[in-house]
Amino acid sequence: MRTILLFVAGAIAIYLAATPTTAIPANIDDPIVQDLGSWAVMEHVKHANDGIKFNKVVSGVQTFPGLGYNFDLIIDAWNRDGKDGKYEAKVYLRDWMDKRTLLAFKLCYGEFRMQEIDAKSVPMSTIF
Known about the structure:
Layout: H1 2-18, E1 24-25, H2 31-48, E2 53-63, E3 69-78, E4 84-94, E5 99-109, E6 112-113, E7 122-123
């Protein structure tokens, strides 16, 4: 019995690791996507303390790698001087654990981008 369970668990793990994920456009009109963008900016500001203010998510891609959702979002925001800018945020959402993780936050400057920052997982309070 244990051998069968171990085999099944291994087969599921291999399937999830080998299954390609398909990227689909994120629905930027969805309040959940806008909330993720706002949260990503707030989380970035907690670590960088650079005074960025969220405006809106302007585009994004969503993938489902198996145990959560990856969102690659382009966010329109204002910097401390009030200048408009585009930022790229990578957010990993584990709805079954009620957590979000900010994987990266970068200023989109053509070829130039800000360095990625690390962020800790925080409880999800307003999503779903």
